[in-house]
Amino acid sequence: MCGFTGGLWQRDDQAISADLLSRMTNEIAHRGPDDSQLWMDAEHRDATGRPMGVGLGFRRLSIIDVDGARQPLSNEDGRVRMVFNGEIYNYELLRKRLQGAGHQFATDGDGESIVHLYEDVGTDCFSSLNGMFAIAIWDARRNRIVLARDRIGQKPLYYSYKNGRLVFASELKALRLVPGVCEEVDPNAIDEFLTYQYIPHPGTIFKGVHKLPPGHFAVLDERGLRVQRYWNFDPSVERPIGREEAIEKVRDLLSDSVRLRMRSDVPLGSFLSGGIDSSLITALAGDHTDTALRTFSIGFPVADFDETRYAAQVAEHLQTDHTRFEVQPSGIEILEKLVWHYDEPYGDSSAVPTWYLSKLTRESVKVALSGDGGDELFAGYERYRALWMSQKIARLFPLNKFPGIGLVQRLPDSNRRRSVIRRAKRFLQAIDQPVVRRYMNWLQIFPESMRASMYNDDFVQTLPGHDPVDFLESVWARSEGRDVVTRASTSDIVSYLPCDLCTKVDIASMAHGLEVRQPMLDHRFVELAASMPVEHKFRGRRGKLILQDAFGDRIPSSIFTRPKMGFGIPIGQWFREDFKPLVHDTMLAPDARINAYFRPDAIADLVRSHETGEQNHGYRLWNLLVLETWLRQL
């Protein structure tokens, strides 16, 4: 697990100096505190004699072959060089195959298998990799550079191609050091951020700077830059499978996925929240250790947000070596750090507990397993149940005639995390919309009508024809023909999962030099779950049925039926107490940076409504405060 930077230039006046490459690489030193390496070839020319200089920078977090496997790696003759961030879990199998084909290995690490596989099959190599990765390969023989990202988007990769120069990095902050790259904020990205609480790929907060989409590779050669999908995942395909066969496949694939992710030359543990997913991963990981597995959970003083009693129950059942951290989360203390590390506006407030958990876990281990992905794969979110219920109701009578809409909307909001009133309001606000827009309404932070009422006229003029919902509609269309629960969950697999959850975990963990592995995101397991008939996963009010069928004997039965809590913080309370002075000194100040986009009176009304308890706008205010803080760091 590491971080890398680099560039390729086709004009001498766009060359990257060794000093600039070094500064770019050091900017992401937190991703790889164990080693740093640079490699450059400023004199290379393509077949026509045109300049094609290249540089690669690398920061290493040593996990496999700790004393060797330094990057950039190269093939036998040095004509192919590579940097990569992540882990290839099937590398030992690939290595045997490649050695049989005559390749000579100089290291015992997982990365060298990519180099030799690329030599043999070119860009087809990425389809053979089981892992999480972002990769940059310089191919002097073909005069090209290749970038690639894993199928699910667990590892990030940013790039910009302007004026004959491609620059790329594991984090956006490295590209901000390159003159002429991160010059202008994209207004559409602001609108998308306030809709989703993240900026969807391939866009970023800056014009002309992109995220390589998950499951894609990019090639730059004499023909220019082209981006191509290599993962042929088709969510519209449902494969008939009986319940017993489905149970067997889920058991076999998840067990194998965990086994592959237990390989480490440094201490390894597991996050344990006490929910279904992390509990199952921990149980399966215990099958591959000779000593008690180290497990970690984090608790908060506010009971509504503390799951550690469930984690302790599972830890006792599995006989793990359990550590419970308790913190008083301080948004004031952590806000500036979060905004700097996430590089662009990112508003998922669960980044706060993820940050603390990563920081404290790193004090004991260098690698941690996580249960991310179970909700998306097996219909665990409440919004899937809401969508299913709304479809049932639609068959009975017109949704816009649903009784009680006006009454519920007039009820005062609640600060409680699982407020029935708040959930009812969100459900009824969206119930008469087309299905994809109905689902969008349960996802979005600021509804379209609210954004439109808050934006100032000048900002609105920069958004003609732009609709953030286009992103969700494009991924929703890929599952044409499936039931609504499957369409929602598979859409989340290719949107919310990489853009929000994987981003959250990668940045929070790598900020502390911790590698997090997510067994449920093995692409084989993802493809199995997505192609499975919905009745194996979801019926009526409950999801994740197949997980209970397959592993019900591995963890306490009560874990499968307890209410889902998620991973949150008392954000509403913060904005009435801890954050109140900061909000008034920044967002409501005459020099507020968000005034470039919003009407000051609209922001003031939102703050007043929340502080008086009229409405709970905690998550909206968090997103606005993140945006304001990011703009002040520009």
Task: Itemize the secondary structure elements and their pairings.
Elements: E1 2-9, H1 18-26, E2 35-41, E3 53-60, E4 73-74, E5 80-88, H2 91-100, H3 112-121, E6 131-139, E7 144-149, E8 158-162, E9 165-169, H4 172-175, H5 187-196, E10 210-211, E11 216-221, E12 224-229, H6 243-260, E13 268-271, H7 276-285, E14 294-299, H8 308-318, E15 321-326, H9 331-342, H10 351-361, E16 367-369, H11 374-377, H12 382-394, H13 405-410, H14 420-430, H15 435-443, H16 448-454, H17 457-460, H18 469-476, H19 484-494, H20 496-510, E17 515-517, H21 523-531, H22 545-551, H23 558-561, H24 571-574, H25 580-585, H26 600-611, H27 618-633
Parallel strand pairs: 13-14, 13-16, 14-15, 16-17
Antiparallel strand pairs: 1-3, 1-9, 2-3, 4-5, 5-6, 6-7, 7-11, 8-9, 8-10, 11-12
Helix pairs in contact: 2-3, 6-21, 6-22, 9-27, 10-20, 12-19, 14-15, 19-20
How would you summarize what this structure contains?
The protein is of the alpha+beta class. The chain has 27 helices and 17 strands. Strands 2-3-1-9-8-10 form a 6-stranded antiparallel sheet.
